[in-house]
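Note to self: keep these together.
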Amino acid sequence: MTVSGGRAWWRICALLLVLLSAAGLALAARGESSDPTVASVNGVEIRQSEVRKALSAAGIANPTPEVERSAIHALIQQELLVQEAYKAELEKSAEVKAAVAEATRRILANAALQQELGRRKLTDEELQRRYEQAIATLPKREYRLRHIVTGTRSEAAVVLDRLRKGSNFSILARRSLDKATGDRGGEVGWQSAQGLPTSALALVEKLQRGQIGGPILSGAGWEVIQLLESRPVKVPTFAEAKPQLQQQLQQETAQQLVQQLAASARIEAFLMPAPGEPVAATGH
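Structure:
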């Protein structure tokens, strides 16, 4: 097979080759009549299923013919390198053996998880229940705020007094300890009730639009807060939330599997002390 193309073409191929190598692809079995050969390198066939897997690993769902050809060239490059590695007997090196062993462990661990997820079928009824539980805990409103952070309560009280007497909020915010918001007039942006410290939420819920309150103590320091506006929280539909709910339940299933395995296993962890910590005595 003759391969041709410009520099840009081969840059695409080289990029795909890197993606293929990083992905640790498990390629389909060769020799199936329903899986046509798309290339051959020194007699080693590359099949259509391998191209599809390569594109999927690269995050390409709907490839154009040009992208498919690039994937084929990337697989050709990969096969050339693999053959060169075998010619040099690199598979016998300690580094390669260690890498293969580590890759095998990752593949087997993932296979065990996938097997468990396959047994644990998620129904729409279960997802709907989880959706309703999540919606019930969502905050009802979110708030657009700006603040000024000081080091002491007395400093915050002075700032609050100056603001109430008509000082410009944006100008005073330039001296805020929160430099990220100070450069934009103290603007914090939209915050949900879940994202606010308890002290800030208690204050904000009492403010009317445009009002300034404080001082309150938070993890950032002593704050003076202004409520710019508020609005109801947009609740996602079941269809919008479904992918995230599926992912959450799959993560829970994985955690449950590991916990079950750990409960019936004999586990010994030999941890080194953190830097600077003394080594604990182990005998009497």
